Amino acid sequence: MARFTPEELQAARDRVVPDVVAEGLRVLFCGINPGLMTAATGHHFARPGNRFWPVLHRSGFTPRLLKPSEQRELLSYGLGITNVVARASARADELGTEEYREGGRLLAAKVEGLRPRWLAVVGVTAYRAAFDDRKAQVGPQSRTIGDTRVWVLPNPSGLNAHWTLDTMAEEFGRLREAAGS
């Protein structure tokens, strides 16, 4: 992976990283917003400490461990990636309440157009803020967006230490089973 100077990472602030999407996916994974490493590389979940790619493989969604630069390969497995908030920031706590709510509205419209079987939001706090659902927990939700069911997954950030690689893979695996292989 390329090394970036602090200045190069800061220059990536507020960039938008293109979605990896197609109509009719099995699962559309939805991050909170791009981090600076993701924005600098143009690849989702690119920060070295992020566990998204290892968990995706360990849970059985992908037959091998993909690199962030191979993100378009997800489409061949019926998977995609988007974000609640499109703009990149150093930390998710830089996002405001209205930004989350607007992101939730835009996400719902995107999901209505793409019609994935499942929307999987990685981060319960982001889901709660985007959809004004303070009681949401990790797991399947009662909410649907059109015919799309919603599942909240643990945030794969390395900062989310109370979820281990194994416990996250177990939760992602529950979604994989529900979504069909």
TrEMBL record:
Name of protein: G/U mismatch-specific DNA glycosylase
Keyword RNA-binding in record: no
Molecular function GO terms recorded: hydrolase activity, acting on glycosyl bonds
Superkingdom of the organism of origin: Bacteria
Residue spans crossing the bilayer: none
Annotated organism of origin: Streptomyces massasporeus
Enzyme nomenclature, EC number: 3.2.2.28
One of the Pfam families matching this protein, by short name: UDG
SMART domains in alphabetical order: UDG (SM00986), UreE_C (SM00987)
Keywords: DNA damage, DNA repair, Glycosidase, Hydrolase
CDD domains cross-referenced by the UniProt entry: UDG-F2_TDG_MUG
Residues annotated as domain Uracil-DNA glycosylase-like: 18-179
